[in-house]
Amino acid sequence: MESILVKIQDTVAKYADVLSKISRVDVEVVDNRLYRVAGTGMFSELVNQDMSAEGYVYRQVLKTGRRQIIYSPGRELICQNCPHCNDCQEEIEISMPVRMGMEIIGIIGLVGSSREQKERILGDEQLYLEFLEQIADFISTKAREYREMDNKNRLLDTLDCTIGYIDQGIVIIGDDHVITTSNEVAKKQLELDMPEGTYVEIEATGDRMNYLNEYKMKVGDREFSIMGHLYDLPQKKGRYAKLLLFENSKAIQKKYYEMTSTVHKLDCSNIIGDSEVTQKMKREIMQVAQSSSTVLITGESGTGKEMVATAIWNASNRRSGRFVAINCAAIPEALLESELFGYVKGAFTGADPHGRIGKFELANKGVIFLDEIGDMPLYLQAKLLRVLQERKITRIGSNQVFTIDVRILAATNRDLREMIREKKFREDLYYRLNVIPLEIAPLRERIEDIPPLAEHFATHYAKLFQKYFWKITEPVLNCLRQYPWPGNVRELENVVEFMVNMMGTDGVLDEKTLPREVRERGGKSEEKNSSSDGEEDERTVHSETGRGTEEVLTLKELEQRAIRQAIARYGDTTQGKKEAARQLGIGLATLYRKIGE
Ligand SMILES: Nc1ncnc2c1ncn2[C@@H]1O[C@H](COP(=O)(O)OP(=O)(O)OP(=O)(O)O)[C@@H](O)[C@H]1O
Questions:
Q1: For residue 551, what pLDDT is reported?
Q2: Which CATH number does the domain housing residue 235 bear?
Q3: Please, what is the average pLDDT of the chain?
Q4: How many angstroms is it from 305 CA to the middle of ligand 1?
């Protein structure tokens, strides 16, 4: 690495020149590696030479740190080891160390080569020494300035490199609102190749979520919603006035959505069924998808309302936006509003102190699916009606109003007209929701769908459980066709899952694999009559092993069993689940959570 005097070689050369002109004596400057950095007169041709082989006196100065005056070069004790001791041309030599703090960074040599020069120096020795010291100080000051500047530049390079590693957007802004520095993330989020020099306006909205403040950032004619922190920098003025550390709200929403969305998004090709009713429904889905009107999907529990909603979203031009689902029955009444509209820090007691993004905001430019809309409390129905009319929302605890572009799909298995009569559902909301009604027939009205659905689920679960599946026997299919299916496709799916569990290595779903209730209520068939021969098959869907002995169940399994039995007793409808939850002594939301819906 080059010495510091080499780094400031031009400056050193200028000082050597000045010194030489004023003293009328030749001057050379060497660094602490005995490399000649500057030289005048007889030394001017020898600049940039390594003189470590000859600079004996200079080596002494570097060692002792003291100036050295040789009055009789070649004849003094110190000259004895010098290679030029016997042919020394010099008459007098003064070597002055250049210090930077404790370090000696070089030496200035004032070399008189004539008697006249020697006499002149000796005539004013003290003055010459003071002048030399002064020049050594000037060089030292320049070297220090250079080193400080160099350190600062290195620090800036390091900071530049460090902010490149940070996965938040960083911009530094001047007091004139112009971006001075940015990192790669900021470039990406602000969609600018070169943010430096761009004029920006940043305004806090006053909302705070996830420990971050929300800002509106205007860049030209574009506006970004960002979440982060804006800090004053120590200088406050000039090009480095403020530091903004931020994340794009869209990126935060994406993370939040990925964390919270559990919906299985299917398209029309996933809807199984050969019946004319199902085929017609698929055609309707494709047609409805092209519009942006609100759809009200009705049908009994488990008929596939959510599946249809995702198929509409999938076939629509909102497919690049999100599908955000919310089950109005599964969320406690008090929390439903904040789930839908979101809230900011400090919005209400008991709320998550970091705030939360609402489902409507999350669904912007996409679709929101309001499942079990019949269970929405009346005061929220009024609020939803306003959203439907004005397409604007406000987070709880905030006074910001957002315009949203969301398509609303709602679903219910309740008779909303009856609820309107009972004053439990707002008529005006009903008409706003029911712009496109889509009714899904119960399974018992489309029994042609049962065999392909059963095949589909059997294939799916066999693959999941890594079992061989060959076929479903005709008596079993008959039984499945005749069973009334109060829980519709979901119940059929559960039954087939159970049967695949019970299925032997032959891969045949025969009557022995059927749950008792389905076998009994699904009508008697020949196979059952011939195979039962008085032996009572005690298998039920959730508790037995199929080997005739009861397993010891874990508490969790016991709990699941109690919940399933209660649902089986009171029905797989929202009302049924409500009653089941009541009988079990738990809240409806807890029940939904425990059954994973
Ligand atoms: N035609 C179909 N083809 C394939 N799978 C189906 C079909 N209909 C329903 N399913 C499946 O049945 C299950 C229940 O469907 P979904 O949750 O959409 O019903 P739902 O009507 O929304 O139920 P709930 O009224 O309880 O909210 C899901 O696993 C779904 O994929």
A1: 53
A2: 3.30.450
A3: 87
A4: 6
With CA atoms as reference, report the closest residue to 27 among 172, 122, 131: 131
* Ligand 1 pocket: which of 275, 276, 306, 497 to mutate (most atoms within 8 A of CB): 306
Exposure string of 218-235, with b = 16+ CB inside 10 Å and e = fewer, is: ebeeeebbbbbebeebee
Residue 167's pLDDT is what?
86
| Measured distance CA(323)–CA(311) in Å, rounded | 10
In a domain, 394, yes or no: yes
- CB-ligand 1 contact for 491 (6 Å cutoff): no
Query: Does residue 306 line the site of ligand 1, with CB under 6 A?
Result: yes
Residue 446: CB within 6 Å of ligand 1? no
Q: Which atom of ligand 1 is nearest to the CA of 309?
A: 18
Q: Is residue 586 in a domain?
A: no
Residue ending a domain, choose from 252, 274, 306:
252
Which own/partner pairs from 194-197 qualify as long-range (CB within 8 Å, at least 24 positions apart)?
195/171
First to last CA, the chain: 68
Please indicate, yes or no, whether residues 392 and 423 belong to a single structural domain of this protein: yes
Give me the interface pTM, i.e. the ipTM.
0.98
Kindly state whether residue 318 falls inside one of the protein's structural domains: yes
Taking the C-alpha atoms of residue 474 and residue 480, their distance in angstroms, rounded to an integer, is: 10
> Are residues 51 and 30 in contact, defined by beta-carbon separation less than 8 angstroms?
yes
Predicted TM-score of the model (pTM) = 0.64
Same domain, yes or no: 189 and 131 = no
Low-confidence ranges of the chain (pLDDT < 50): 524-550
DSSP string for 299-327 = -STTSSHHHHHHHHHHHSTTTTS-EEEEE
pLDDT at position 353: 60
Convert the pLDDT of each residue in 197-219 to its tens digit.
Answer: 999 999 998 888 777 888 999 98
Is 375's C-beta closer than 6 angstroms to any atom of ligand 1? no
Which residue CA neighbors atom 23 of ligand 1 most closely? 302
How far does residue 499's CA lie from ligand 1's centre (Å)? Answer: 19
CA distance 27 to 578: 101
Return the amino acid letter for 259: M
Give the model's pLDDT for residue 349: 58
Query: Do 197 and 171 share a structural domain?
Result: yes
Could you tell me the distance, in angstroms and rounded to a whole number, from the CA of residue 556 to the centre of ligand 1? 25
Residue 500 Cα to ligand 1 middle (Å): 19
Examine residue 559 and state whether it is found in any structural domain, yes or no: no
Residue 116's identity, in one-letter code, is: E
State how far the Cα of 359 lies from the Cα of 323, in Å rounded to an integer: 10
Q: Which residues contact 77 (CB under 8 A, 6 or more apart)?
A: none
Nearest CA to ligand 1 atom 18: 304
Measured from the CB, is residue 273 less than 6 Å from ligand 1? yes
